[in-house]
Amino acid sequence: MIWALICLIFLVGLWGVTRKANMVKKVMGLSIANSGIILLFVHYGSLSGTTAPIEGSGRAMADPLPQALMLTAIVVGVCVMALALVLVYRLYLRFGTLDMHRVELGAWKLHD
Amino acid sequence: MKKTTILDLISRKLAPFMLLFGLYLLTYGHMSPGGGFQGGVVIASGVILLFVAQGVEATASLFPFRSLSLLEAGAFLLLVAAGLAGLAAGAGFLGNPIAGVDVRMVPRASMILVYNVLIGLKVGAGISFMCMYLFREDR
Amino acid sequence: MRGGRVTAVLEVVVLVLVALFLLQALQGDHPESSEVRGHLVENGSRETGALNLVTAIYLGYRAFDTLGETIVLLVAVTGVIYFAVPAGKGDDEEDHDTRSDLP
Amino acid sequence: MTDSLLVWVLLAPLMGAVASLFGKLIRPLDRPLSWLGVASLAVPIAALVLLLEPVISGKSVRYALGGWPEPYGIALVLDGLSWISCALTTVIAAAVALFSLGRRRYGAGYFFFLLMMVAGMYGVALTGDLFTMFVSFEVVAVAVYVLIAWEGTATGLAASYKYLVLSTTGILFFLFGVFLVYRDLGVLSISLISEGLEASGGVLSSPAMHLALASLCVGIGVRTAFIPFHTWLPEAHAYAPHPISAVLSGAMIKVSLFAMIRIILQFGGDYLLELLMWIGAVTALAAVISALSQSDVKRLLAYHSISQLGYMLAVFGAGSALALTASFSHALNHALFKSLLFLTVGAAVSLTGQRNLYRIPPLGRRLPAFSAAFFAGALSISGIPPFNGFASKGLITAGMKGSPAYPLLWVTSFLTIASFIKLGRIFLPGEDRDGVTAGGGNPGALQTAVVVALGVLCLGTGVFGQTMARGLYRILHGTAPASIPRLFSGGKLLGVLPAAALGAAAYMAVSTDIGSRLSRRVRALAPELRTVLLFFFVGLLAFAAVAY
């Protein structure tokens, strides 16, 4: 059941990326999809136990490997979002709009 | 940014504790939950709180732009050098050179501590410098 | 927008299919324990000295991932600073790239 | 000792990049540190030459990072496949970096991103671990996003954003694939995947495994740009700075293709080969048709990159050992002549400030060395002997003997000739009209040297095509090749004539008014980001469905 919920979060993100015309909302969609994937890993890690994987805590520890991997995935996601938003900022300065459709029309017309 | 006294007072009182907590996360990253990236981001948020409340000039005197960008690049260089130290000590790149040393005198985790602190400094300097640079642009 | 209707319907159909793709992959029994995890949990802290096993992994066993990650962060921060040019300076003349170099 | 060389292949560009970062921060040191950064590429060249010996004898060099053994730590692996992708990256990166040094305008910051991209590409080629491949792909991607939009032009920024959204969506599915592999096989290192799969009865036994293979291939496929995922490439390559388009077309899409090939071979995904062959053939044909109709010189070259990549994919789909060698030799040759073409045409664009094919005045007399090098590249891509395109296309014909998709590739070859007759007009020796000096400065001596060197390399790898093919076969399969067809046999040499004639005829057809009207309609097919993402999902479902 939880797997379906995590898939839902991932799909909400993908929906935001594909359907929304606003460039900032696309970036938000990417961020939601990214956290969907992170949740997938961390949830799987918690199946074997839910206490923080610190040595010496007697209770069943969560799997440290997905958590370590997700540390990397989160930072990478943040960096890509930062770059995306700066590109959106520069495109907004240039075209005065955040609508991806009009930006592409503008860029395409500018080219020809 | 109109400087209200509440913001001014709180930020000046709160920021040191945030920096301290960030440093705690760095140095105790290998014993308790924490680590390089989390500590670095907490330090960056402390610095950003300061310059949002106090304005960029006041904070720039405390954390000058030049030194932050040099710190970021320098910390990364030191991180690669630490990795090479592992290589030189025969433990393979990014390995633990202290593994062979007598454990009692130098705890084996000190290499992890070095990595944590270096990454923390780099992340803290990088993110605060980026935000200050962006913030300065808008004025 | 030309064909807006068509692309909209297509997108909905495709996303539903992707949902099936995801659920199909996720259901089904999957072995709980993995040999790698067992090893890391048992002697993670002994070999690397870090009590926090997550730190033991991302700074000990898989330190190369962390190095790659710091590179990504360094590149992203430098990239953001490069692009955060104040308005009005460096807007493009389409073909002649006379952009002055940035700090 | 030799295995720690592997670390230096990856570390040298990284240190070079940090040096150029300091060059960016400390103004007066800008030029010297840029030179130091580019000089750091000499280390991988030396290391790869030293590492060639073990690879030739079939042994794969493994280096456990941090001393941790394979399943727990990360290992750098150098086998035939990764040696070729590292060699390809080094050659193209060195050529492009030297070319960029020639332009005063590219400061140390530019070389920081370029060298970080090269370090990331080495990471992708050398890593033996799935998650490290994800991190290395992201290092390459982040550097490429910045470099595509380097000149701050609106089209560059839009192209970069479009590529960012598409490739990040792709990489999320790659992560989904990594999750499935970790969940079902419990291991992340690539070499242990095949063992884990054998234990559980092959990739088709459990549905999760072939969906994992599908998401991994799709995640990487976005970066290689064959049919369903190619839509980002024309803008990204056309509007990036010229050296960046060269390194994107020359090295990046091929390193990603090699990574995808490695994963498919490790998973034993033979059921995908049929699909890949057809995708490759259709990509080759469709891309060359849209290339023929382009008026922007760099978009024309970008579509050709997609088409040539279709060749490599189609011949890989044929599946035999010879086919694999043909695919890799075409990748190497394509890297040489495509980066040469991008650099020469780029110089013409920045010299005249014009991008439209018909508005660029003939530059034959103005840039003699560049024109000669351009024609070397154009003849190579058209597969005219004795250039290297002919050699690798001969191998491809041999590799795809009797496969149904070959006629598509044959039609593509003479359409390629047609489009390069069309593009060739900008470098013909013509009268030197005054509008020529409107653009940037004259290309410097260093740039001319790089371009001529690439031209000579194209000729050299063509003339010695036979030995090259045998060498590649040994590198890839570790054993001496059983039978490499004679590339320069009479039959093949004569085979070029009909293709050239048909190419000329096709060029005539395109320049008639019906042809140009058709071209204009094809040109207008620039898919928007929405349709681009739709293509992506359709590609994902195709990769998944083919297993049922």
Task: Give a structural overview.
The complex is a heterotetramer of chains A (112), B (139), C (103) and D (548). Chain A is elongated. Chain A has helices at residues 2-19, 23-45, 64-95, 100-111. Chain A has four helices and no strands. By secondary structure, chain A is mostly helical. Chain A has a single domain, classed as Helix Hairpins (Orthogonal Bundle), CATH 1.10.287. Chain C has 103 residues and is an all-alpha fold. In chain C, 65% of the residues lie in helices and 0% in strands. In chain C, helix 2 packs across helix 3 (53-61) and helix 3 (53-61) crosses helix 4 (63-83). Chain C is flat and about 60 Å long. Chain C has a domain at 38-84. Chain D is mostly helical. Chain D folds into three domains: 1-109, no CATH class; 129-269 and 532-548, no CATH class; 271-511, no CATH class. Chain D has helices spanning 2-25, 30-39, 42-56, 80-101, 108-126, 130-148, 154-185, 190-199, 207-224, 233-239, 242-267, 271-292, 297-318, 321-352, 368-381, 388-399, 406-424, 445-463, 465-477, 490-511, 513-523, 529-545, and strands at 61-64, 75-78. The interface between C and D is large, with 50 and 70 residues.
